[in-house]
Each structure stands twice: as C-alpha cells, then as structure tokens.
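Weekly structure sync - notes
Attendees: PM, LS, DV (DV joined late)
Agenda: review two folding runs queued last week.

Item 1: First target. Sequence and structure tokens pasted below for the record.
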Amino acid sequence: QVQLVESGGGLVQAGGSLRLSCAASGGTIGSYVMGWFRQRPGKEREFVAAISWRGSSTSYADSVKGRFTISRDNAKNTVYLQMNSLKPEDTAVYYCARQIAGRYDAWGQGTQVTVSS
C-alpha cells in the first residue's frame, strides 16, 4: 500500500512562494496520474492541479492557473507543487493523491499553508 507524505507547508506573506513536496513510499507513483487538492477553512476539499504519469500533461484549477506549477520526479517517487504569488485565499491544508482508474485512491495526511495579508 503506497503511503504519501506531504511537506513544505508553512506561513508566508501574501505575494510569497512555497514549494510543496509529496514523497511516496511502499509503492511507485511513476505510472499514475498524481493530483494536489486543498481544503480551505470551512470549505470542502477542492482540486488544485494534476499531472500525467510522464509529466507531459498538466491541469489546474482556474483559481491557481498561472501561479502554481505541478511537476514530478519519478526517479525520486515525488511530486511537487510550486506556489507563487500566494494570496490569503490560498490558505488551506494541501493534500496530494494518486489516481487509479479515474479515482483518487491514496491520500497523504496534508500540509498546512497559511498566507498572511
């Protein structure tokens, strides 16, 4: 059973940047679509970004397009989320997840990102 562990969250001022990492163990993520999601205070979890298994195709939520970049290093079994021009509304717990057959079946525990104004 693959385990996903997110890291890189923290407190940053508006306009700043953070890079989240999602490291997998107990299995490979190299053959799967990987995604990032977030849950803002008082809101349901929402899609942020996804990347194909080769990294050749990416997709983003409109709210983060042009500011966030998802990438992966299959040799390191790790997925990244580079977040630039952060806004207070980006404050959330960020999760990575593995997609199999169209559904996300494995999730990390999340990492907190707080953006101060």
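Item 2: Second target, run right after the first with the same settings.
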Amino acid sequence: QVQLVESGGGLVQPGGSLRLSCKMSGGLFVIYNMGWYRQAPGKERELVADITGDGSTNYADSVKGRFTITRDNTKNTVYLQMNSLKPEDTAVYYCNRRSGFLSWGQGTQVTVSS
C-alpha cells in the first residue's frame, strides 16, 4: 500500500522560508508526476506546483518565483522550498500524484503570521 508522509511545516513570519518534504513508500515513485497541494480553511484544495519524473516543473501563478519543487528519486521524496512567504500561503500542504490520486496523507500545517 502506497503511503505519503509530509513534514516540515510550522509557524513562520511573513518573508520567511520553509522547506517541506514528502516521502512516498510502497509505490513506483520514479515514474510518477508529483504535485504539492494546499488547502486553506474554508477553501478547496489547490495545486501549488508539480514535477515530472524527469524534473520538469510547473507552478501556480500565486507562488511562481517564490516556491521551488524538486525531487530525489533515490529517496522517493519530493520537496517544496518556500521563500518570501505571505500570510495567504497559510494552509495545510499535501503531496500526491499529479493525476490518479493516491490516498492523501495527513499533510503538514504552514502558518505565516507575525
């Protein structure tokens, strides 16, 4: 059974940085296009960034230039480096496949506040 475990969230001041990690176990990570998603209170889950198996990336306009998605296929892990964080980035962050979702993990809470 494939499992996704997110980590690295926390409380940070506006303008700060965080690095999120998501480790997959039990799946063929290297062939999956992966994405980072977020869900703020009262809002639908949205795609923030995605990365193909060979490293091509796409970003939502709201995070372009501030967030960077990367992956390490040897560790079955996808990362999200978040810089210049804003209060509107506050959300629970999840990773999953870009399509054909696996069971969602518990996510990691990111709170941007002074």
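Discussion on item 2: The two ends are 40 Å apart (CA to CA).
Action: LS to circulate a short write-up before next sync.
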